[in-house]
Amino acid sequence: MIGPLSLAVVLFLPSGSLLRAPGPHELCRLALILLTLLAALGLGAQLRRERDTRRKTEQRLLEFLATAGHELRTPLTAISGYIQLARMGGLADPEKFDLAMSRMADETRRMLALLDELALLTGIDLGQPLRREPVNLARLCRDAVADARACSPHHPIQLTILPGNHSITGDRDRLYQAVANLLANVRHHTPKGTLTAVGLGTEDGYRVIEVVDDGPGIPAELRGSAFERFVHGRQATAARVTDHDAGGGNGLGLSVVAAIVTAHGGRVTIESAYRGAWFRIRLPA
Ligand SMILES: Nc1ncnc2c1ncn2[C@@H]1O[C@H](COP(=O)(O)OP(=O)(O)O)[C@@H](O)[C@H]1O
Ligand SMILES: [Mg+2]
């Protein structure tokens, strides 16, 4: 195959000796060759960059599939264990039967929640459009806080809505999910009695929603990666067994928040707090 360099030599040599001073015609040819060379080198670098990006994307996708499969395996293993037990007559006692049923219901709920989150993340990755409707963020925050209070009366929540316009255009259900995930995390990852403050206001043309709690805070080792998929702290495994509302313990909650907020053109950050966790969502007004 003729590479860019040999192409230059072939094009340049036939017009005579290299020792002779080049005429204007040859200079033009030389300039053309150099331009061809530069373009070929630039194209090569771009192709290499594209290939690297494609490889990284494929690698991420494979890791995502492997982890998702593993996460689904855990509840399925538990359910098939209870089925085995029932077949062997181990659930004849009504109390054991009820316990097995409620554990199977929990695991089924967990799988459905995981599948919902995976569907949402892949939908956003594939660029599926979100709904674009008028959303009243004040009402959304009120609903999310009321629902969270109903889920855990042991986690008091204080809501502050600053005066002003709180409407944006977006996908109401997804935005609700983002706020609900942050509030669910307080229930799952902080002790009873932890106080949460939810605030809504406007800053520099952005609607800002803050969820701040006075619990133990995001573990230091997770601070840089908390919004990545399947990243969770050690206690999350305990939440997996004990919580009864959806979406706990698989490490997708914060990545779902980030995906939803980013798809709305906004940004979610973890702010430095003296204690507890402080999340800040900024959405273009
Ligand atoms: N309010 C919070 N307080 C303390 N730790 C938190 C809080 N929110 C999130 N975390 C930490 O961030 C991790 C990732 O959260 P998330 O993505 O929602 O996954 P999951 O809740 O399924 O574990 C959690 O496992 C937990 O360690
Ligand atoms: Mg969570």
Automatic annotation (TrEMBL):
Subcellular localization is given as: Cell membrane
Domain Histidine kinase, chain residue ranges per copy: 67-285
Query: What Pfam families is this protein classified in?
Result: HATPase_c, HisKA
EC no.?
2.7.13.3
For whether the record's keyword set contains Kinase, the answer is: yes
This entry's Gene Ontology molecular function terms read: phosphorelay sensor kinase activity
Q: Which UniProt keywords apply?
A: Kinase, Phosphoprotein, Transferase, Two-component regulatory system
**Catalytic activity as recorded in UniProt:** ATP + protein L-histidine = ADP + protein N-phospho-L-histidine
One GO CC term of this entry?
Answer: plasma membrane
Q: Which PANTHER family match?
A: HISTIDINE KINASE 1 (PTHR43711:SF1), TWO-COMPONENT HISTIDINE KINASE (PTHR43711)
For this entry, the protein name equals histidine kinase
Which source organism does the UniProt entry give? Streptomyces alanosinicus
- Taxonomic lineage from the root: Bacteria, Bacillati, Actinomycetota, Actinomycetes, Kitasatosporales
